[in-house]
Design a protein that fits this description.
alpha/beta; Rossmann fold; 5-stranded parallel sheet; 4-stranded antiparallel sheet; 18 helices; 13 strands
Length: 484
């Protein structure tokens, strides 16, 4: 495997100096996608070497957007949201949730950088083959699709790892003339934020990690079991709720029944297409079920629907879950750059799988099954592996101010992941939302707490008493909604 040694790091630094440049911004509007409202910003493009160590030729363009602070005399150090995925555009992510950042924008510019390979920064995407879904998985089909994807990519996929991407972020800081960044990472973005702080501590003023991925964790082997744990907890909460239990008795048993039935005999249903409304004939098996349920478990508002949709499926009505599956696949296809996603996973996660410690029995028994793990390993068996820094998988050691946010119902980055990341943080605070899912900035008073933390650059100023009043969506008892 390629590893960036101290010598290569020095080459990276010198290559970055050679590409040092100012960045001219002009008025623009950014949005979360076609048909979405536009947000006023200042945009520009920064030219970067494809390979910062200079061994491979070529350049790429980075899309930069700055949303000015509300204050006419803002603080000199901006707030920098970094999207998850991996493969999501930070510009589109911010535009989708701009309201959650307004408290911090009172005093600071928002700097948005589409990470290389995403959004408008030399996107590394491949159209998803409709036949490559969980219910029809095979290693042969996955390898065929992966080879086709590699042939379509506009650039060498080796140079789209996190270790390379953080050099871009530092180049943006220098080009815009900011003294330092206040970083906010969500999900995979927490990995980027931690690594930027490791590489450029003098360029980092504060860090917010939301849905934390610790460096020492290889994402993949625990996804299915953690998601199963989250779903089990949701269904147990329904069983402990008098109204939910009365409406949906034995909901855990019904869930297991649906999984078993779809595993042995997929159904064919007509599902209204989310864009056209026209009925679309869809095969719905255990794989499609897993896609629908996994994303429902991410957010409290969709968690509230889960018992109702499971009960409907157990009664033979698979259309509501089928609709969720169709919406999910379209949303993921639109939001993620698959090539960049694979470049991250195949350099930073799959090579670090410890097969002696993987709970294969638990994964196989989960509602998701073994598909995702098998697919990742098949993809990465032929995907070119890019460079990562020598200490990339070591927990960050820092005295920088850090705020960590977790939801105790998060199906992919549970609170214990944040504790693993924070093992060598000497100036940190960890807030855990009760019954909350993946991504906490928009929950309750968190946006205000984040703004206070960033203003002070001190976790000691946080008064989290307000989180006790955070709203949790009650379970839907029918399609008209929860009880009043």
């Amino acid at each position: 495997m390629l590893r960036v040694t101290a010598v290569l790091m020095a080459i990276f630094a010198s290559a970055g100096a050679a590409f040092a440049q100012s960045l001219e911004l002009s008025d623009c509007r950014i949005s979360s996608g076609p048909g979405s409202p536009g947000i006023k910003a200042r945009c520009g493009t920064l030219l970067r070497p494809l390979d910062p160590n200079g061994a491979a030729p070529g350049e790429i363009e980075l899309k930069i957007a700055v949303v000015p602070a509300l204050n006419l005399t803002p603080e000199p150090d901006p707030f920098v949201p970094i999207a998850g995925g991996p493969g999501q555009s930070s510009v589109r992510f911010y535009s989708s949730y701009a309201g959650n950042f307004e408290d911090v924008r009172r005093n600071r510019d928002i700097v948005l950088v589409d990470q290389r390979g995403t959004g408008d920064s030399s996107t590394m995407d491949c159209p998803v083959d409709d036949s490559l879904v969980e219910g029809q998985y095979s290693a042969e089909l996955t390898l065929e699709f992966t080879r086709s994807c590699l042939e379509q990519l506009p650039a060498d996929p080796r140079f789209f790892t996190t270790s390379v991407a953080v050099t871009d972020l530092e180049a943006v800081r220098e080009a815009l003339g900011y003294p330092s960044f206040n970083l906010y990472g969500v999900s995979y973005g927490t990995r980027v934020a931690q690594h930027f702080a490791r590489r450029y501590p003098a360029s980092t003023r504060s860090i917010v990690l939301d849905g934390v991925v610790p460096p020492q964790i290889a994402l993949g082997p625990e996804i299915a079991t953690e998601s199963q744990n989250a779903v089990d907890a949701i269904l147990a909460r329904c069983a402990a709720d008098a109204a939910c239990n009365e409406r949906f008795p034995d909901i855990g048993k019904k869930f297991r029944k649906v999984v078993a039935e779809l595993d042995s005999s997929p159904v064919t249903i007509d599902v209204p297409h989310p864009d056209t409304g026209r009925p679309e004939n869809t095969t719905f098996g255990r794989g499609e079920f897993a896609i629908a349920v996994r994303l429902l478990a991410y957010h409290p508002n969709s968690i509230a629907l889960l018992p109702l949709l499971i009960n409907e499926a157990a009664s033979g009505n698979y259309v509501p879950l089928g609709s969720q599956y169709l919406m999910t696949t379209i949303a993921i296809s639109d939001a993620l750059s698959l090539g960049m996603h694979n470049s991250i996973m195949c350099a930073e996660d799959v090579p670090f799988f410890d097969k002696t410690s993987i709970d294969y029995d638990g994964i196989t028994a989960s509602y998701m099954g073994i598909f995702q793990l098998d697919a990742l390993e098949a993809i990465c068996s032929i995907w070119p592996e890019g460079p990562i820094d020598a200490e990339f998988k070591v927990p960050l050691i820092t005295d920088l101010p850090v705020l960590l946010l977790s939801g105790d119902a998060d199906p992919i980055t549970p609170p214990r992941y944040a504790e693993m990341a924070a093992v060598d943080f000497s100036n940190a605070r960890h807030l855990i939302g009760k019954y909350q899912g993946h991504g906490q900035l928009g929950v309750g008073c968190n946006r205000r707490l984040v703004a206070a933390f960033v203003d002070a650059a001190d976790p000691a100023v946080i008064d989290d008493e307000c989180l006790e009043r955070s709203f949790v969506m009650p379970f839907f008892l029918d399609f008209s909604g929860p009880l009043p």
